[in-house]
Amino acid sequence: FGFSSACRGARPSLKRIAMSLKFVKGPMQAQSRLHALILFLLAKSLTLCRCSAIAGCSASSPEPCTSGSHEADAATMMQAGAGLLEVEALWPPAQLSNNATCETDGVDSAVFQHGLMMSDVHFMPIYSTHPLSESSAASESIERAVIYIHGLGANANSYFCDGVGIADEHNEAASTLTLTPWFGNQAVTAEEWNPQLPAGSESISWSSSSWLSGGDSHSSLPGTYSSFTVFDKLVKLLEGHKRNGKLPNLKHISIAGFSAGCQMASRWAFFSSAVVSTGVQVVVSDCSSYLYLNTLRPAPECVATRNTGPDHKCDSFGQPVGNELWYNNYKYGLYFRGPTNSYVDPFAINSRLTIAAIDAFPSKNVRFLFGTADVCMCGAADMQNDPDYCFPTGTDCTPNYFQYALNDVLCCDTYPASFVYNVADSRPGGMVQGSNRLQRGLNYVHYLQYFYAARGDPSYKATWGLFDGGHDSAACFSSPLFIEWVFGINDKPSSDVHKRGKPSRLPISDARVPNFRSWLAGEDPLIDADLDD
Predict the structure, then answer these.
(1) Residue 13 vs residues 20, 51, 88, 382: alpha-carbon distances, Å
(2) Residue 387, class by beta-carbon neighbours within 10 Å (0-12 exposed, 13-18 middle, 19+ buried)?
(3) CA distance 160 to 487
(4) How far is CA 145 from CA 174, 180, 259, 466, in A?
(5) pLDDT of 492
(6) What is the C-alpha separation between 415 and 427, in angstroms, rounded?
(7) Is 386 strand, coil or helix?
(8) Mean pLDDT across the stretch 266-272?
(9) Does residue 235 contact residue 253 with C-beta atoms inside 8 Å?
């Protein structure tokens, strides 16, 4: 605004406002705070001194403006700025704003907002049916803890309420501690989240989806934490509560990750020694990509660009053409080129740690569950998307680079988790693992068996199964196999399967686009999605 020397007294306060923008979380917050700042600065420029023009001040006349028009302009702009700040401060955070699932399940999620203290000033926001603090009362009824990990939308409240509803449906609510961490993109204060947390503390958050591969958090206060560190600490806390008598009858800890949560849990399970603990199991479902343990990938015949069905098998693996950076860099593989995060860095530096993790994986209880209708890929060329599942009515999913459509309905590869976004990983590193989530999952469990047999461990057999549904966390967590694995209940007939996520049958589409096979030859991709779930 070209302040003259007579107006320099305003600069310290304006600088403090500008500095506060460093700690804005999320693009919408940044936008509204920036708008408010501009209006506030403009108002200041009008009221600090008599202005010869809005762009500057008169050095000879530093006293406040007395012009009624200037005062009115300033008041109007300051009021507008305050309004923007009020919009920015709305509660709850956008990622937790949809409470429909909780209303359906009859759960008030706000009552269960607790925190895992990462330090004296940082906490991880967690929904939990039982307090997590050291001062919490003991509970002798709890026999299992089930930790649900949300997808890319970070709707932790919905995952938590689904989990509470599932335990209640099977008469296991009293014996089950249900938890869901929130890997959110917005920091909240203790006063906002749970006033019983230490005063002045702030939540850790993530500015991107890096949390699904162990990314480090950020905060306005010093200190960062890998999402993998959060899970290590949470598992150790629960095991500690068992030892100190707060949860004396806790026998099982299950980590259940779906979609982006599947990516996070499966990678954490590989690197973490906490999964070796007796009674800890990891159940992952419908990842968009997996962590491969060497340079081999499914052979071309295993990655057909169509729905190859739940009986798909892959027995042939080879090394793709070209530099392994395009398909084997972490998070797709164990080639560490470029920055990773504080948890994975030691493995990148010391190959012995990586080898030890490979050796330890067969002893870990990691299970895989795949949706039989999670077979769509809207962001890849030459994909024959299944008309039975990939064009559900009532959706409008983007991006849709190749304009796959059927009866004016665009392709949707993340339904019913999303009605508007396509986030299945269509980058080369993902496509070389398979053309859709079901195919990638089946390829991966067969790869693990192939890999360990080649290492001299033919006894390893991946534990995996299927549920009837699309990209649907509720259908996954309600499925008979999940209930059996997590709750030990096997009293439902095989025909009693949730079928949410399967749209009505549609006629075959004629939509076709060019070749994806060039990716297998190591050529440059046509597109590079920013997000994947």
Answers:
(1) 11, 19, 21, 57
(2) middle
(3) 16
(4) 11, 11, 20, 23
(5) 55
(6) 19
(7) coil
(8) 98
(9) yes
User: How many angstroms from the chain centroid is the CA of residue 517?
Assistant: 30
Residue with tokens 């769509």: 376
CA-nearest of 275, 245, 271, 28 to 137 is 245
CB 258 within 8 A of CB 152: no
| Nearest partner of 185 among 161, 158, 212, judged by Cα | 212
| Mean pLDDT calculated for residue range 512-529 | 34
Closest listed residue to residue 154, CA positions, set 421, 426, 503: 421
How many residues are given for the chain?
533
If you average pLDDT over residues 134-145, what whole number do you get?
90
Least confident of 32-46, 141-155, 231-245, 287-301: 32-46
Instruction: Tell me the pLDDT tens digit for each residue of 465-478.
Output: 999 999 999 999 99
Biggest CA-to-CA distance, the chain: 88
Q: Spell out the alpha helix ranges (H) of 387-495.
A: 428-431, 437-454, 473-478, 480-487
Comparing CA positions, the residue from 236, 47, 205, 44 lying closest to residue 124 is 205
Distances (CA, A) of 65 to 7, 51, 57, 69: 12, 7, 10, 10
380 contacts 439 by C-beta, under 8 angstroms: no
Candidate from 14-28, 135-149, 487-501 with smallest mean pLDDT: 14-28
pTM: 0.79
| Residue 227 CB neighbours (<10 A) | 25
Q: Which pair of structure tokens corresponds to residue 131?
A: 């307090």
The arithmetic mean of pLDDT across residues 420-435, rounded, is 97
Q: Which of 400, 419, 389 is nearest to 310 (CA)?
A: 389
For tokens 């390829």, the residue is 443
pLDDT score, position 252: 96
- CA gyration radius, the chain: 26
Helix (H) or strand (E) segment spanning residue 74 = helix 68-88
Amino acid in the structure at residue 170: H
Task: State whether residue 395 is helix, strand or coil.
Answer: coil
Task: Tell me which DSSP letter residue 87 carries.
Answer: H
132: Cβ contacts below 8 Å, ≥ 6 apart: 114, 115, 116, 126, 237
Q: Is the pLDDT of residue 60 over 50?
A: no
Average the pLDDT over 166-177 and give the result: 97
In this prediction, residue 271 carries a pLDDT of 98
Weakest-pLDDT range from 53-57, 205-209, 278-282: 53-57
